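Hi all, a correction to my earlier message: I attached the wrong file for Ancillary SecYEG translocon subunit. Here's the right sequence:
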Amino acid sequence: MEVYSNDNEQVDALRRFFANNGKALVVGVVLGVGALVGWRYWGSHQDGNAKVTSAAYQQVTTALDASKPDTLAAASKFASENNNTYGALASLDLAKKFVDKNELDKAAAQLQTGLKATQDANLQAVLNLRLARIQLQQKKTDDALKTLDSVKGDGWVAIIADIRGEALLSKGDMQGARDAWSKGIASDASPALKEMMQMKMNNLG
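and the right structure:
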């Protein structure tokens, strides 16, 4: 670092610095201010988009009626066009309507669409658990077990164990089903879920 003997030398040094670097400093300040303004605009733009998307989601899902094909088509269009949490939630709502109509292939496809739309681990877990249940109804037991393997997190242990037990029982693996339900009962499950799994174990004899 340079040491100056008096104020004049310091002032002269500052003048030389600005003479040599003034243009670069101005450009830097302009770019910095531009970036700040741009960032604030982007944040505001994102907030605005989120509000619009949220309102559109509320509109299509509130109107959802399994007996009205146009509402199903509107929700499906919304889900396919929104590669985000709202799109995934719409897929989840739509899948339920397809299950009510016993259109399991469409329900499963919708859940797959939802899984591609979100990076939220909890929402992905819900989508996968619903998908596994549907795959069981479709008699696609191995697919259901594979889907369950993709669900992570301690909070889902009991529900995974319950569905896994059903899947293994459908394959004729009574001991595997018993082991799965035992694991679920030993987990931090709700009393109601523990009781249900205990009943299923008791029914095995």
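Sorry for the mix-up. Residues 1-7 have pLDDT under 50 and may be disordered.
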